Amino acid sequence: MADTPWTDFGAEGGLFRRLRKACASDWAAYTWHPFVRGISDGTLPLAAFRRYLIQDYLFLIHFARAKALAVFKAESIEAMRDKTASIAAILAETQLHLGYCAEWGLDEAEVRGTPESAETVSYTRYVIDRGLAGDILDLEVALAPCTVGYGEVALRILADPHRRRERNPYQSWIDAYAAPGYQAMARAAALRIDALGESHGGSARFPILSATFAEAARLEARFWQQGLDAA
């Protein structure tokens, strides 16, 4: 699978690639969902993207909570520092996200006043539940489909022969996740899964970790789908 740029996250033989391979169909359904293809070719209905943007803001709040849990579950002081920094980055991102929403005609009051959808609740609470029930590896595996998956989504879009390259209304979104900074973060997250797999008995726990990873991928796909349903 090393012949495509979006399959080389993580190390060869490492836990991340094993997890990805074990749920290949669910992973593909998430990372090349019709919602994603609509972003790529510019045909995604505006109503779908607006729905996604609002729920993504609400998701980010719980993503920060999950990172706070990761501080508590962290295996070292260095990991605690890293996760603490990521909380601040996500909280800063929520403000940037509100600004981005405004560009799409969504004011702050509307975004913050919208209830969480069932898809947002089910996904975010699942991730936090896995973290509460398990250790740092359980939590990081539940988070990885989001962090690493968006990096893969961007690379898939860039390689899409049907991608709309001129005047794509979603180009700024594509650029954000294709940017070197995000790609580096996604690759670091995959390598962290590999490292935790080595230090926390990933091979012995693979059936449980694989089930967590696959469910998170399915929940990601449902998160995209809610946008299409709204349209």
Describe this structure in words.
This protein is mainly alpha-helical and 231 residues long. It contains eleven helices and no strands. Helix 7 packs across helix 8, helix 7 runs antiparallel to helix 11 and helix 8 runs antiparallel to helix 10. The mean pLDDT is 96. It comes from Belnapia arida. This is TenA family protein.
Topology:
Blueprint: H1 15-22, H2 24-31, H3 34-41, H4 46-73, H5 77-103, H6 108-113, H7 118-133, H8 136-159, H9 171-178, H10 180-199, H11 206-230
Helix pairs in contact: 1-11, 2-11, 4-5, 4-7, 4-8, 4-11, 7-8, 7-11, 8-9, 8-10, 8-11
Largest sheet, in brief, is: none
The geometry reads as globular
Which residues form runs of ≥5 with pLDDT under 50?
none
User: How does the helix and strand content classify structurally?
Assistant: mainly alpha
Q: What string gives the helices and strands in order?
A: HHHHHHHHHHH
- Oligomeric state of the chains? single chain
Report the span from N to C terminus.
35 Å
Query: So how many helices?
Result: 11
Q: What is the count of β-strands?
A: 0
Helix percentage? over 70%
Radius of gyration: 17 Å
Average pLDDT score = 96
